[in-house]
Amino acid sequence: MSADSSVLGASGLYASAPVLTSITFEYEGASEHLISDSLRHGSMVWTRRGRGLVGFGIAARLTTRGEHRFLDARTWFSQLLSQATIIDPISRPGSGLIAFGSFAFSFTSSFNSRLVIPEIVLGQDDQKSWITVTGSAEQLAGLTLEQALQRAELAMDNAALPATEQGEIELSSGQLTAGAYLEAVRQALGTFGESGISKLVLARDILARSSKPIDLSQVVAALTDQYGDCWTYAVDGLVGATPEMLVRVTNGVAEARVLAGTLDRATEGAEHPDFAKDRLFDDPKQRHEHQLAIDSLTESLNPISHGMQAPDQPFILQLPNVWHLASDVRAQLRPDATGALPSALDIAEIFHPTAAVCGTPTKRAGVVLRQLEGLDRGPYAGPVGWVDSRGDGEFGIALRGGILEENNLMRLYAGCGIVPGSVPEDELAESWAKMRPMRQALGAE
């Protein structure tokens, strides 16, 4: 199948969305390991606890950048859906025509935000498995399940790299050295008070260069195995396992998981839950940082929802590398004047950036971050995930990940929340802990 590529131009106009047909078949008798068995170097991935979506090939895509990147994506996808023929007898979140998406953290970024409509999607939840094929009406005329599966096998072959052992990994400084990061934290601590900013989230990056081409399927497989409770993602070379759900929309209900407050489990004594309770749950600094993130989310959610359920206190989330303070928020979405409910893509734009990855207040913090960080975050800490034709979808925050810049080079990112009382050396150590999942998945430790 041929891909249609739409690129936003300087005029603000882009090529019309293509006319597509999408056919979904229920895939009975699929393996319990359908998703993990489908991972390939060139696949698009969204999975958690062995369930999720894996996409292959490109039926259509949009790339855009700048302040209107979300608007461009929503407009293009809406136009595409208005012209599409969608045959979806199972009608579940993630079935039918879907788009994988990845968006730059900042409107100033040189990174191209994108929506990608795969040619083939394999999906699996707790009740059903399915395969969706998308293309032109002529390409899909008379398509059967058997033919769809044959296309999937061919797509997986095309998306795979030749089997090889992992190369040796060399880590080096990225755009911000360790020393520069320490200085940035010190400067951040000096901005509180008169600026009105109460929290800043400072990011840093490192480079991981391999002696052999990096097979992203091996990286994703390692992340899903070691961090099964996180949402593992892969979109156009952006790969990671995020513990933070920006928004999940299912049948008009929005859910989000907020994380703020971190403790490295490699710290002496940190394996014991009482240690996490003492250093996180009972620590005023950590609780204050977490509350700022909750307040930011609920303030964004209030105008578009009702019946919000937000906990009075966070819980302690245990991951292999760190402990987090976490809170799950849930609300019924409110229809607009036309009766339409906001989609997952709509809400991803509304929520981004959260206080958990930017600061408080977010707009003012964003300006200071661009001055202090001295790096282009690219897709790091931006929304990553998928949306379907019903508006259901899941977008996480692109954390605990990296992006493949060359066939043997990945850039890894991590960020830490800086509040009054933060210790620069502790924040640097926390950033290393947050990079541990990717270092492990690459075989760097």
Structure in words:
With 445 residues, the protein is of the alpha+beta class. The protein has two domains: 4-158, no CATH class; 169-442, Anthranilate synthase (4-Layer Sandwich), CATH 3.60.120.10. It has ten helices and 24 strands. The strands form two sheets. Strands 2, 3, 4, 6, 9, 10, 11, 12, 13, 14, 20, 23 and 24 form a 13-stranded mixed β-sheet that branches. Strands 1, 5, 7, 8, 15, 16, 17, 18, 19, 21 and 22 form an eleven-stranded mixed β-sheet that branches. It is globular. It starts with a strand and ends with a helix.
Topology:
Elements: E1 4-7, E2 21-26, H1 34-37, E3 44-48, E4 51-56, E5 60-64, H2 69-83, E6 85-87, E7 98-102, E8 113-117, E9 120-124, E10 129-135, H3 145-158, E11 169-173, H4 178-189, E12 199-210, H5 216-226, E13 231-235, E14 238-242, E15 245-250, E16 253-264, H6 273-281, H7 284-301, E17 305-309, E18 315-318, E19 322-333, H8 344-351, E20 359-360, H9 362-373, E21 383-388, E22 393-397, E23 401-406, E24 409-418, H10 424-442
Parallel strand pairs: 1-5, 2-6
Antiparallel strand pairs: 2-10, 3-4, 3-13, 4-9, 5-8, 7-8, 7-21, 9-10, 11-12, 12-20, 12-24, 13-14, 14-23, 15-16, 15-22, 16-19, 17-19, 18-19, 21-22, 23-24
Helix pairs in contact: 4-10, 5-10
